[in-house]
Amino acid sequence: MKKESNLFRLRDPARAEQLARALLRLAPSKSVKIVHVCGTHEAAIAEYGLRSLLPEGVKVYEGPGCPVCVTSTVDINLAVMLALEEEVVLCTFGDMLRVPGTELTLEEARAQGADIRVVLSAADAVRIARESPEKEVVFFAVGFETTAPGTAAVLLETPPENFSVLCSHKLIPPALEALLSENTEVDGFLAPGHVSTIIGSDAYRDLVEQFRVPVVVGGFEPLDILYALALILRQLRAGRAAVENAYPRAVRPGGNIRAKELMERAFQVVDAAWRGIGVIPASGLGIRDELARFDARNRFGIEAEAGEEEPPGCRCPEVIMAKAVPTDCPLFGTACTPLSPVGPCMVGVEGACSIWYRYGERPRL
Ligand code: SF4
After folding, report:
1. Digit-coded pLDDT (tens) for 182-239
2. CB 165 within 8 A of CB 138
3. Which atom of ligand 1 is nearest to the CA of 318?
4. 275 ligand 1 Cβ < 6 A
5. Pairwise CA distance, residues 123 & 159, whole Å
6. Ligand 1 within 6 A of CB of 347
7. How many angstroms is it from 277 CA to the middle of ligand 1?
8. What is the mean pLDDT of residues 157-183?
9. Domain extents for the chain?
């Protein structure tokens, strides 16, 4: 009952109107670009039509916030290569199956006989490994700081010897930094609620100090998002740049200490290739040397060559870098749809193109 009343409060139309009026009062004199890095934020913005409540000139883009979309072609190729090994069972999240590699998707590899299973967590893959001791079970681990603690936990709990991880976890703060270094038009960040629950709002302080750009952590209900956007506009209006937490019911300044400890014990920070961006220094997680026997790259001695990143005409790199919106792509909704995706942003449920197609979103630029 209490939950229902909270939900109602967070979707209260009267409060939304109040916030929309506040946003109008805070309207900047010049056009501003606010970037979020979270598919859940984009889905809520599109589903509830929040762009229509923003003042003229306030543009909100999704940046590199879809873990499926930013997984590099190299890692997809490695996963395909492993999956095609006879003794291997490759486990991964369902969204990964249709992401284009250089030659094959995992779904196409499965059609060629590869044993690929969809799981909901690393723990599911460990269970499969225990049930199939004659097989090598590889978990293709993708995602940001939200999914990485789950992978860390199974690595630290002494999984069976026939289990290993192809680790492609990535870190959000270095991606924001790369975006600011590359895309100087960004005026503020709506920081992701899920990731911030783990890393804490303090994790953005260095970024704010270095780039003098407002960062506001936001939740996922429509009012959470409008409130966070209002705080960003208020900072811009006052010429301030600070970290603010508009999601205090879930996010603490220091984050989730236990989850951060697990990540620290299982992983080391490494340079990582992001699809659409390239290599970002210290932006990925590799498995620590002490746990190297569970690292699929070591166990199978695999290396894949970098391939062509995107199919001709696909503008995913610009969408991921918040330089374009999905409807800027000539293939959007014609050659490229969720049923026959051309680029990664149309594949994952958190990809901007997939979300815009689903909700009929149009730019407010
Ligand atoms: S519409 Fe398709 S091809 Fe175009 S950017 Fe999006 S995913 Fe890439």
Report:
1. 866 899 999 999 999 999 999 999 999 999 999 999 999 999 999 999 999 999 999 9
2. yes
3. 5
4. no
5. 9
6. no
7. 15
8. 94
9. 63-181+191-210+245-358
